[in-house]
Specification:
The chain is an all-alpha fold and 155 residues long. It folds into two domains: 66 residues, DnaJ domain (Helix Hairpins); 73 residues, no CATH class. Helix 2 runs antiparallel to helix 3 and helix 5 crosses helix 6. It is elongated, with a radius of gyration of 21 Å.
Amino acid sequence: MAFDRDAYEVLQVHPKAHQLVIQAAYRVLAALYHPDRDSSAASTRKMAELNDAYAKVRTVDRREVYDKGRERRPPEAAVVVTPYPRPQPSQSNSGTRSGELDFGRYTGWTISQIAIQDPDYLRWLARHSSGIRFRAEIERLLREPPAPPTPHRRR
């Protein structure tokens, strides 16, 4: 499994950080995302990415080799790719609808659309200060089980 992200970015350390700082960062992040603690698929992917990044910089010798290869790479342009499809625009002309996010990766989505696509994001948003205005609706949606999809009728 190959990962394209920079090892220092994955470990959340500065490229000139001391070797002990890198080791400590790895241990803290590994404890956070370890499959014994969180068995979700996202956590498993994050742990695999952490292991790959740490393998590249865990010793002084490996780190020197990685840094030399890193210097040869051309600088990457900062491109933000949203892997989530944008929802279809609503028919209302009232601007921002009630329960519609106007920030982040789900800009333009309603809380109910996000509940279907990414309930973990809603759990995070309910705890975050930017989600205060949506908290009641989020808690209501997370309490009730998701509605089954409605079948389409043929005419």
